[in-house]
Amino acid sequence: MQQVKKIVLAYSGGLDTSAIIPWLKENYGCEVVAFAADVGQGDEELEGLHDKAIASGASECYIVDLKEEFVSEYIFPTVTTGAIYEGEYLLGTSMARPVIAKAQVEIARKVGADALCHGCTGKGNDQVRFESTFAALAPDLTVIAPWREWDMVSREDLLAYLAERDIKTTASATKIYSRDANAWHISHEGGELEDPWQEPTKQVWTMTVDPEEAPDTPERITLSFNEGKLTHVNDEALSPYQALVKLNTLAAAHGVGRIDIVENRLVGMKSRGCYETPGGTVLMKAYKALETMVLDKAAIKYREQIGLEFSHVMYDGRWFTAINDALLAGAASFAQKVTGDIVVKLYKGQATVTQRRSPNSLYSEDFATFGADDVYDQKHAEGFIRLFSLSSRIEALKNQHR
Predict the structure, then answer these.
(1) Which of 80, 137, 226, 328 pairs with 15 at a CA distance of 20 to 30 A?
(2) pLDDT level of residue 402 (50, 70, 90 thresholds)
(3) Is the pLDDT score of 150 beyond 80?
(4) Which of 65-69, 160-164, 296-300 has the lowest average pLDDT?
(5) Which of 12, 56, 126, 187 is catalytic?
(6) Per the residue annotation, which of 12, 16, 187, 358 is the catalytic one?
(7) Where are the beta strands (DSSP E) in 19-89?
(8) How many whole angstroms separate alpha carbon 198 and alpha carbon 56?
(9) Neighbours of 104 (CB within 10 A)
(10) Which residues make Cβ contacts (< 8 Å) with residue 23, sequence separation at least 6?
(11) Mind listing the pLDDT tens digit for each residue in 312-325?
């Protein structure tokens, strides 16, 4: 093991990181500083965290409020790209990792640490996301990943390890789900979800109302955007984080935002997860609906290409890279036109756009009408079609004379 003097650990207070603190002290003989990020996972997740970290052996615990930065600097820019991983996943866990890892590096610099540590499993994506950020921002610091070093392999092993050292934990062998929450979403893995043929039980879902039990009366909400940024919800001016909180509350009450998918992890295996992203689902639908009003065909096509590529950049943990900057810059140029209002109807798990308007709208009723108009000469379409299909006509004529 490499000699280190002070380690900053990304600490959640869960079973893994509770065991990591004493393990680091025993195996590296170093000081451990705990760092916890508030990315909107909820006050209950942060309650007592400082005292718990100290009781586990940390010399200090820094809890950093990253909620507004997370939403405004990571979530909202991602929304402008339209990124959805493999057609369904709204990237909730992926988006949180770069802002957390960046803050962890900042704490390490502040306290003079020479190493960084995370509790990510060697089977998952998060180890790549954290360590790619570390590589980009702090290549001089040692990175320690206990799950790739220690011989513990299960929750039972970790519980026994803590019990032997009389370190208290709220975790138990009966807590079968692995969950990760932030302002954007909550993810669920493990338990019956490891069998793709098993329908999720009701106990899986924790953030949204069951769509079958949602209100029988739909609710309509208005989202207002200015140059790609959500500024108002139902005419109320809100900060990015406050706006997302409000959307989460409104949409969750109608069961909006549940997905159940099998995805391709970066490390090569497939995994099954259930995600709840109520406010994010509404925000993405509204944003894309406004885009269709203000961007022409070529712009929409290119923005869709940006979204596809960016979904992999974000999922794979490549935020602090040149390709990330280039894709965000492209999306930001389109976002300058995304100003206007969208009305979304929430009903029984569905979010449906019903109204849209924008001062930058390219939609013209004069041109689009099926009634009489004075602006469009339908005879012009004949010449357009002949030129548009000219290559096909030439090829067909050539084949006829073979």
Answers:
(1) 137
(2) confident
(3) yes
(4) 160-164
(5) 126
(6) 16
(7) 31-38, 60-65
(8) 37
(9) 29
(10) 146, 150, 161
(11) 999 999 999 999 99
| Nearest partner of 227 among 299, 358, 335, judged by Cα | 335
- Pick from 192, 27, 10, 7: nearest CA to 111: 7
Q: Are 36 and 11 in contact (CB under 8 A)?
A: yes
Q: Which range has the worst mean pLDDT, 30-39, 95-104, 276-285, 383-392?
A: 383-392
| Rounded distance between C-alpha atoms, residue 229 and residue 231, angstroms | 6
C-beta separation of 10 from 130 below 8 A: yes
Q: Is 16 a catalytic residue?
A: yes
* The pair of three-digit structure tokens given for residue 34, joined into one six-digit string: 């705990």
- Out of 56, 132, 178, 358, pick the active-site residue: 178
Helix (H) or strand (E) holding 271: strand 270-276
- Is residue 155 annotated as part of the catalytic site, yes or no? no
Q: Report d(CA 369, CA 367) in Å as an integer.
A: 6
